[in-house]
């Protein structure tokens, strides 16, 4: 039964991943994620139901559209696999519980934000601001205890403070840097940029705080630059480009914080 449950959760995750693919493609283009039905982004031919099975259809079609025979981006397969793996990881960590649902919703939002930011250098408000609302509501629900019912306000307060601290600390850091670098040192903006930290990153860390609380939001803020500096240096050396999407590094740090933030917090005596 355990094997069957794991397979079911993995397949469920892949189905959600297929929907996330739709969101990642359509949201930046201001298209509905519900209508019209799935179609090839190259020739616009409708995708048949048997050609829309996660993993299997991509492998059977050898990564090509049945209609136009042009290659389909491996990103679709990657996101389905990543989402399925995330669902399985959470299930094995939390079982079929509220925490499983809570963190799976959270990781799904991070996956959308990450891949949209990589492709378009933006983080959609539908994900960040919408995610703040969802995080607050789920944290409110987490405080409800049955039978009774009784209510513990602590999860919601932590979520609310996480939103403020997460968004506030990254906004304040970018503001101070811009004041020193652009104003006092009179350095010209890079590639027309007027701020060092995009508004999308501010709202994304606010969303992360809404789900993880203010302490873990601080952990995300402090460890994400360690991921970004490596890619940033490679990007600077290879492409001579100073600008990198920061959302993926915030997302990666957030994933690590779900499981290891408490151990990191002990080092700073924030128990």
Low-confidence stretches: none
| Percentage of residues in helical conformation | 55-70%
- Ends distance: 38 Å
Structural class: mainly alpha
Q: Roughly what is the average pLDDT, rounded to an integer? A: 88
Radius of gyration: 20 Å
Strand order of the largest sheet: 1-2
Which word captures the global form? globular
The biggest beta sheet is recorded as: 2 strands, antiparallel
N to C succession of SSEs:
HHHHHEEHHHH
Q: What share of residues are in beta strands?
A: under 5%
Can you count the helices? 9
Oligomer: single chain
* Annotation, overall tally of beta strands: 2
Topology record:
Elements lengths: L1 H25 L29 H5 L14 H20 L3 H23 L4 H18 L1 E2 L4 E2 L2 H31 L14 H14 L1 H26 L7 H21 L4
Antiparallel strand pairs: 1-2
Helix pairs in contact: 1-3, 1-4, 3-4, 4-5, 4-9, 5-6, 5-7, 6-7, 6-8, 7-8, 7-9, 8-9
Describe this protein with a few key phrases.
271 residues; mainly alpha; two-stranded antiparallel ribbon; 9 helices; 1% strand
Structure in words:
- The chain contains nine helices and two strands, in the order H-H-H-H-H-E-E-H-H-H-H.
- With 271 residues, it is mainly alpha-helical.
- Helix 6 (154-184) packs antiparallel against helix 7 (199-212).
- The mean pLDDT is 88.
Summary?
The protein is mainly α and 271 residues long. It contains 9 helices and 2 strands; from the N terminus they run αααααββαααα. 34% of the residues are buried.
